[in-house]
Design brief:
Length: 337
């Protein structure tokens, strides 16, 4: 969910590796963490951001390295829901930021976090009627947000620098609507919550579909590659540029990482090259195993069914998981299993 996944998107590190605080709305320390925007700025890249939730104010630490970091006007802090409709003002503020010559006269990186597809799921005049259920209203929120993202992209396309601008669209988490008796997001790492879209547009490259599991930690090295910035050592992800250019890159194991905080016990999952997903809860005390290719809804736990495979995957998971640096969160106790 946002306070963990955005940190991975903007740092290229798993959240467990970052110096952070224990609350559910986690803060990331500026002096001890290196975020991508800091590296880009040090390499002459202008760094921009506009966000639509008050959690993403400077207190979160997500602003590290950004030259121009703003919030959408008119929103207030609400820890339980997102009642505001922000996409129209968000896009208007983005266009205002991108209209400033000092922001776009050279290389720039921009991070824009749209928020409308969140509970409360508002309905919007002029939008298609997807239905009355929560999932239907969520779909309408996605449609509504898409219209305003399109306005932003249309503006970019009309600028002289637009033909030299790569665009990445992804989600920081999914949303549950009763799957496994779970609603909204956070607390778990089931597919409905962690499998998100990833679209990458690079001018001049032919469109293609990459049928591989990839990770948010791959985005930082990919962006460095696209911008001609050397990739620092110690990043767990892999640049996706060669795949974007058409190379057939083999599958590799992918991790999702949820460190413990005041509301969450530690959870970590690994999907292997064949689509077997191992879920570890607590300090690797309880394991579940699913074949998400054959069973995308994770309805059949194979941990006691395919014991030989489970033992081999657990052994491999423990080896690879131990290679992920761990930093103890500060600021109070976390939820224990």
């Amino acid at each position: 969910f946002t306070s963990k996944s955005v940190a991975a998107i903007l740092s290229g590190q798993y959240p467990s590796s970052l110096d952070r605080t224990t609350p559910f709305f986690t803060s990331y320390r500026d002096k001890t963490n290196t975020f991508m925007a800091e590296v880009l700025r040090d390499n002459g890249v202008r760094t921009l951001g506009i966000q639509a939730h008050m959690y993403l104010k400077e207190k979160s630490g997500m602003h590290q390295g950004f030259d121009d970091w703003r919030m959408v006007p008119g929103i207030e802090w609400d820890p339980n829901k997102d009642p505001f409709v922000t996409s129209p003002q968000h896009t208007a503020t983005v266009i205002d930021q991108l209209s400033d010559p000092k922001n776009v006269s050279g290389k720039f990186f921009a991070y824009y976090h749209y928020m409308d597809p969140h509970d409360i799921y508002n309905t919007h005049e002029g939008a298609p009627d997807f239905g009355k259920k929560a999932r239907d209203r969520y779909d309408q929120e996605v449609w509504f947000t898409d219209q305003h993202i399109q306005k932003m992209l249309d503006y970019v396309d009309q600028q002289a620098w637009g033909q030299r601008t790569a665009t990445i669209v992804t989600g920081d988490h999914g949303e549950a609507f009763g799957e496994r008796n779970f609603w909204k997001h956070a607390f778990e790492l089931y597919e409905v919550l962690v499998r998100v879209p990833l679209f990458i547009y690079v001018p001049g490259l032919e469109p293609r579909k990459v049928a591989r599991w990839r990770s948010h930690v791959d985005l930082v090295p990919t962006i460095y590659d696209l911008m001609g910035v050397p990739i620092p050592e110690g990043l767990p992800g892999t640049s996706l540029l060669s795949e974007l250019q058409g190379e057939d890159v083999p599958p590799r194991p992918i991790f999702s990482d949820l460190p413990a905080d005041t509301y969450n016990v530690r959870k970590r999952v690994m999907i292997d090259e064949e689509g077997y997903k191992l879920s570890a809860t607590g300090a690797d005390r309880i394991f579940e195993l699913f074949n998400v290719k054959a069973d995308p809804h994770e309805s059949k736990n194979l941990i006691d069914v395919d014991k030989e495979r489970a033992a081999a995957i657990i052994e491999r998971y423990k080896k690879l998981s131990a290679e992920i640096p761990f930093t103890e969160a500060v600021g109070g106790p976390v939820k224990k299993f």
